[in-house]
Write a structure and sequence with these properties.
Blueprint (H helix, E strand, L loop, with lengths): L1 E8 L8 H11 L8 E6 L4 E7 L13 E2 L5 E9 L2 H7 L12 H12 L1 H7 L2 E9 L4 E6 L8 E5 L2 E5 L2 H6 L9 H10 L12 E3 L4 E7 L2 E6 L3 H10 L6 H18 L7 E4 L4 H13 L5 E7 L7 H11 L2 E7 L1 H7 L3 H4 L9 H12 L4 E3 L4 H5 L3 H14 L5 H8 L4 H9 L10 H12 L4 H9 L4 H5 L13 H7 L3 H28 L3 E3 L5 H7 L15 H7 L5 H4 L10 H6 L3 H8 L3 H4 L5 H13 L5 H17 L2
Parallel strand pairs: 13-14, 13-16, 14-15, 16-17
Antiparallel strand pairs: 1-3, 1-9, 2-3, 4-5, 5-6, 6-7, 7-11, 8-9, 8-10, 11-12
Length: 644
């Protein structure tokens, strides 16, 4: 695991300070690889590749990068882990290669030299971001893993091509200007993050998952897919599971065990995040089933019981007999981290669960260098609450043959406070917490007749056209896979799963985990995002994913073999923080300072009146606009750190 960066100058550019520029890019990525760093430079060709190393496999100098192939044709820097490297190495036995070490970096290079780049990439099981320079053809190739676990930005600006694991690397090497990409800004306001294929900067892009970028010259770059979620869906439909449900569950367990076991190979200490939920508990249970010693597990707890899963994690850890460490953090511990978020996430990023993710990464890194995580189970196996809510809303909207818009408007005629009071009068109703606010948020969705449009509304924080007016970009960003889902007539839940896997999982969940973990020099491995698991998930019948109102049905059946069901069967809680309360309390002044930032209105063109209305309603308790206000405040925080 590491950070990578590089520059390829045009023929007219001055290469005398090229090495210094890439060294600065490397330095900006130090947190991704504190165990060493180096730069390879070919001044005649005007190219330099840099890498910061977090040593995981082959800790010797034989694993150092930039690395050259044995035949001298290729130079490569790479970020990730390849879990089938030993098998690939065996397949090269007939090539009579004199191996210098046992790193997966060397295996990738020699596979490329033997089979070619595209054929090699298709054979890899793992997570990776690769930059490969072909000295013979004078071409630069950038490659990102199938599901986008590892990040890779690239730029074309001012006579050079640049790339880096994080945007701050491009900025450090003057590989981009600080001009804002208006489409990226609109996408952030809508989704709370900047999707792959864009960045917040005008001259940079995040390489899309499952793509190879071939750069032949400074004005010729071709991006092609070598794997896609769409193909996984189609193959799953063509080769749908034909056996009984139990045989499918058994096959899934075998595949998950293999995915987990492959990710337990390391030359450094290893452990796992454990929240006590289905996904992380399944990963830990399978780890413990193949380990001859207690697995090291880690969890973070909060004083607010509504956001605290540490007690559940502790129960699971005791049952599985893991070596468990937990840290209870105070609200102040979490709040102290808020000013650091824009440094860690160098594009605007709204997901407040980045706070506990950072905290658990910091705790875990004190004990191990590698940790397994349960991320990815929700998208593949139907675990998000919104899948059930959207399904119910779709059925409700469909049951109103005429006048669904009138029903929607009727539901909002009563204020949230009046709804709370009215429902509070119902016999046996113990809690009315924010139910009026939930009715007001759900009501507009009833008026939307199209399921995909309803999904867009469900995942959107703002409408940029309304928030920015004529400053909004004319180039609109649509969720990847939308056209595919419509053309294939996927059912509503399957459509949401596919689109979530292509964007939300990549650009929110995986971005959150990558930046928080690597800021602490911790490698996180995600067995559920093994492409073989994703492909198998699409072969399963829908009832093994969402069965009635029960999500992740197949995973539950596997986990019940290892953990009593009463430890697991409880309402799903997110890995979050009490954001709404914080913005009304200890973060009130911080939020106010950021909402008063004039750049939001003069530079970004936001509607001051609309934002003030949200703030007023939130502070009065009339509505919960915590996520929306946090989104604007984090945009301001990012602007002050990176643009001011």
């Amino acid at each position: 695991m590491c950070g990578i960066a590089g520059l390829w100058l045009s023929e007219q550019a001055d290469a005398t300070r090229l090495g210094d520029r890439v060294s600065r890019m490397n330095d900006a990525l130090y947190h991704r690889g504190p165990d060493g760093g180096d730069v390879w430079l070919d001044e005649q060709e005007g190219i330099a590749l840099g890498q910061r190393r977090l040593a995981i496999i082959d800790l010797s100098d034989a694993g150092k990068q930039p690395m050259h192939s044995a035949n001298g044709r290729y130079v490569m820097v790479y970020n990730g882990e390849i879990y089938n490297a030993p098998e690939l190495r065996e397949k090269l036995a007939s090539a009579n290669i004199t191996w210098r070490g046992h790193s997966d970096t060397e295996v990738i290079l020699e596979c490329i030299a033997h089979w070619g780049l595209r054929d090699t990439i298709k054979r890899l099981i793992g997570m990776f971001a690769i930059a490969l320079w072909d000295r013979q053809k004078k071409k630069l190739f950038l490659v990102r893993d199938r599901l986008g676990i590892k990040p890779l930005y690239w730029s074309r600006y001012d006579g050079h091509i640049g790339f880096a694991s994080e945007v701050k690397g491009l900025l450090a090497g003057d590989a981009i200007s600080r001009e804002v990409n208006q489409t990226g800004l609109d996408a952030y306001l809508r989704f709370g993050y900047v999707p792959s294929g864009l960045s917040i900067y005008a001259h940079a892009k995040m390489l899309k998952p499952g793509h190879i970028l071939e750069i032949s010259s400074h004005d010729q770059a071709t991006e092609n897919a070598y794997w896609s979620v769409e193909d996984a869906v189609l193959n799953g439909q063509t080769h749908a599971w034909s056996g009984d449900d139990q045989s499918a569950i058994d096959a899934l367990e075998d595949l998950l065990r293999d995915a987990v076991q492959r990710r337990m190979v390391a030359d450094v200490p290893l452990g796992a995040f454990l929240s006590g939920g289905i996904d992380s508990s399944t990963v830990v249970a399978l780890m413990q089933s193949v380990s001859d010693r207690p697995v090291k597990t880690f969890s973070v707890g909060f004083e607010d019981e509504a956001f605290n899963e540490a007690a559940f994690a502790g129960e699971v850890a005791r049952h599985l007999k893991t070596d468990h460490t937990e840290l209870y953090v105070t609200p102040q511990d979490a709040l102290d981290l808020v000013p650091k978020l824009s440094e860690t996430y160098d594009e605007p990023f709204f997901d407040s669960s980045a706070i506990p993710t950072y905290l658990i990464s910091a705790l875990t890194r004190k004990h191990v260098t590698v940790a397994l995580s349960g991320d990815g189970g929700d998208e593949t196996f139907g675990g998000y609450n919104r899948y059930l809510w959207a399904k119910q809303l779709s059925a409700a909207a469909g049951s109103i043959p005429f006048g669904s818009g009138l029903v929607s408007r009727g539901l909002t005629m009563l204020s949230p406070d009046h709804w709370d009071k009215l429902i509070g009068l119902m016999p046996g109703k113990k809690s009315t917490s924010a139910i009026g606010d939930k009715i007001h948020k759900a009501a507009p969705l009833l008026a939307i007749r199209d399921d995909i449009d309803r999904y867009h509304a469900l995942i959107s924080l703002f409408d940029p056209d309304k928030l920015r007016g004529n400053r909004a970009s004319t180039k609109k960003f649509r969720v990847p896979g939308e056209k595919f889902c419509r053309n294939r007539h996927l059912d509503y839940v399957s459509s949401m799963q596919a689109m979530d896997t292509m964007m939300y999982m990549v650009d929110d969940v995986l971005t959150k985990v990558d930046r928080a973990s690597m800021a602490n020099s911790l490698e996180v491995r995600v067995p559920f995002i093994d492409h073989r698991v994703i492909e198998f998930g699409w072969r399963l019948p829908a009832r093994l994913k969402m069965n009635g109102s029960v999500g992740k049905y197949a995973l539950r059946q596997i986990l019940y073999k290892y953990v009593p069901r009463e430890m697991i069967d409880r309402p799903k809680t997110g890995f979050g923080v009490p954001l709404a309360q914080w913005l009304r309390g200890p973060l009130h002044e911080w939020m106010g300072d950021h909402l008063a930032n004039e750049a939001l209105y003069t530079d970004f063109g936001l509607d001051r009146h609309q934002i003030e209305k949200l703030r007023s309603e939130h502070m009065s308790g009339k509505r919960n606009w915590g996520h929306q206000l946090w989104t604007i405040a984090m945009l301001s925080d990012w602007q002050k750190r990176w643009l001011a």
